[in-house]
C-alpha cells in the first residue's frame, strides 16, 4: 500500500487529502475563521475580581476580557484525595483569597466567546495529544470511561510503566485503546516537550501572550495522519512547508523527512482529481465499477447505505452477481465512511444473499476494510432483516455538514411541493382571508411556475373562485421566490 498526503493551503482554508494507490481516501478541511480558541493557553492578567459572583475577569489579549469562575480555579489534590474532592474544597475558598487584581495567571480557554460573553477559562492546564491528554499539574493516571472496564486496569498499568518517574498526569483517550507501547511513548514524549515550551514561554513573554495553541490541521498531519506507509507529504505553500519542516524536526523527525514542497504549475489537488471526488462525496449516489451503485442518506439519527446491482449482469448466475456486487460494495462503503467522515450509527442494506457462505464472506470483507480506518469502528452481523449495523466514532463534523447547509427552498427535506399543490394552498388561503376581511382586491405574489399555472391550466378555477368571493384576484410573478413561497396581499 502506497500513500501520499497532499496539502492545499490558502490564508482562509487548509485542505488535506490522503491518497492511497492514487485513490482519495480521506479529506480534512480547516477554515481560519472557524477555528475556535478552546484549548489555547494564555499568560493572563487579572483585570477585576468580583466577590459577589465568585469570579474574576482575566485579560488574555482578546477584544473582551475572559471569565474565570471559582469552580475552575485548580487545586492539586493532596495525597489520598480525589480530584472531585479537591475541586469541591477549592470552591469553599472565596475567589478573592485565591486571585488578586494585577496578578499574572496561566489560564486555558474551556469555552469559546459567544455573542457579548467573553471566553470561559480554567487554571487547570491540559494538553491534548493523539492518544493521550497531559495534565502537567496533576499526578493522576486515568483511562477514558468509554473503554470497557475489563481493559482499563491493564491499560492503566501500561501507562504507569511508560510514564515512569517523571510524573505528570495522563488520561488515555478512546482512540488509544489499541495503541502500541511505542505509539504511547511517542505521544508522552511529544506532550512533555510541548509543556516544556509552554513553561519556557511563560517566563519570557509578556502578559496576555498566547503560550500554547492546539495544533492546526497542518501540524496534525504530521502527528495523526502520517504512517509507515506514507511516501510523501506534499505542500503547495513554501511558507507553510518551512513552518511544518521546523515543527516536524522538533517533535516528529521521522514524519518531517517525508515533507516535499510541491512546485508544479497545476493545482496540487488536480494531480488526483480531488475536487471531482469531493463533489461526488457530497452526492447521494456512488457508482461502482461493476455497474452497481450505493445510495447514501445522512439523517439526524443515523446514516443508511443501500446497495443495488444496477446494470451489473457480469456473473454466471444471479447469486454470483449479487455476491460480487456486495463484495465490491464493502470497499466503497469503507472508503465513503472515511471520505465523508460519517459517524454515529450506520445501517447497510446489502442485496439479499441466500447462501450463508456469501453472507459470511461479505461480513468478513467489510470488517477487514473497516479495520484500516483511523477512527474506531464497530461492525455487527446481519440482523433478521438482513441489515448490517455498525458504529463509527464521531471525531469532527461530517464533510456534508462542513461544506454545505440546508437548502433554503426545501429546508433540508430534499423535496418541494409541486406548483399545483402550492396553487391549491393559495386557493384555500384566499377563501380563508375572504371570510375574515373585505378588501377591494386580492393579489397573489408567487413564483413564476405557480403564476404560469394560474394563467393556464388553473385559470378557470381562479375565475370561479373570484366569482364566488365577489372580489377580483390579480397575479404577480416574483422570480426571487421559491416554489413553495407565496403571499396573498389584501388591497
Describe the protein's architecture and organization:
- The N and C termini lie far apart (72 Å).
- The protein has 13 helices and 24 strands.
- The strands form 5 sheets. Strands 4, 5, 6, 7, 8 and 13 form a 6-stranded antiparallel β-sheet that branches. A 6-stranded mixed β-sheet has the order 16-17-18-19-21-20, with helices on one face. A 5-stranded mixed β-sheet has the order 3-2-1-14-15, sandwiched between helices.
- Helix 8 links the parallel strand 18 (302-308) and strand 19 (344-349).
- The model has no long low-confidence stretch (mean pLDDT 88).
- It is α+β, with helices and mostly antiparallel strands.
- It folds into 4 domains: 3-35 and 216-274, Nucleotidyltransferase, domain 5, CATH 3.30.420.60; 42-212, OB fold (Dihydrolipoamide Acetyltransferase, E2P); 284-403, Aminopeptidase (3-Layer(aba) Sandwich); 419-490, Hypothetical Protein Ychn, Chain: A (3-Layer(aba) Sandwich).
- 33% of the residues lie in helices and 26% in strands.
Which labels suit this protein?
single chain, 491 residues, alpha+beta, Nucleotidyltransferase, domain 5, OB fold (Dihydrolipoamide Acetyltransferase, E2P), Aminopeptidase, six-stranded mixed β-sheet, globular
